[in-house]
Amino acid sequence: MSIYIIHDGNKILNRVVADNPINVGSGLSCIEAIGMWDGYIGQGVNADGVIPDPIVEPVVIIPQEVSMRQARLALLTIGKLAAIETAITAMAGIDGEAARIEWEYAQTIKRDHALLLSLQADVLAMTDAELDQLFIDASNL
């Protein structure tokens, strides 16, 4: 017994288990499957009847921390560095002083840092997805 793939020349339609390739009718073909193929149903078959490798979406890893150098360069690249620095300078009281110390002296910044999250909507005007992308971009600098 072997596993056979039924396809129409463009897409894999189904699979069957049989002793020999089966007659599948007009416009369809039946070829022996070699290896794993369950993830292929609905995917294309090339002109030689070969099943392509499965389509695997790349896994995007969002850095949870970048260096302050990377963060500042990424913010500069998108034109937001001056706005962040102005906002931090304008913060009053002990919270403002703490924010300035964090911004000046921290070696890294975490994606979930309270200061960053407090500036995300108003100063950066970024969604979570956009901030994730900023961290991805920053990590490559």
SSE blueprint and pairings:
Elements: E1 2-7, E2 12-18, E3 29-32, E4 65-67, H1 68-77, H2 81-90, H3 93-105, E5 108-110, H4 114-124, H5 128-139
Antiparallel strand pairs: 1-2, 1-3, 4-5
Helix pairs in contact: 1-5
How can the largest sheet be summarized? 3 strands, antiparallel
The secondary structure category is alpha+beta
Residue share in β-strands: 15-25%
Report the helical percentage. Answer: 25-40%
User: Given the structure, what is the number of helices?
Assistant: 5
**How many DSSP-defined strands?**
5
Adjacency order of strands in the biggest sheet: 2-1-3
Question: Rg from C-alpha positions?
Answer: 27 Å
Distance between the termini: 55 Å
The gross shape turns out to be rod-shaped
- Poorly predicted spans: none
Order of helices and strands: EEEEHHHEHH
What integer is the average pLDDT? 80
Structure write-up:
By secondary structure, the chain is of the alpha+beta class. Helix content is 40%, strand content 16%. It has five helices and five strands; from the N terminus they run ββββαααβαα. It has helices at 68-77, 81-90, 93-105, 114-124, 128-139, and strands at residues 2-7, 12-18, 29-32, 65-67, 108-110. Strands 2-1-3 form a three-stranded antiparallel beta sheet, with no helix packed on it. The chain has a two-stranded antiparallel sheet with strand order 4-5. A hairpin with a 4-residue loop joins strand 1 and strand 2. Helix 1 (68-77) crosses helix 5. It is rod-shaped and about 80 Å long.
Provide tags for this entry.
single chain; alpha+beta; 5 strands
Summarize this, please?
This protein is an alpha+beta fold.
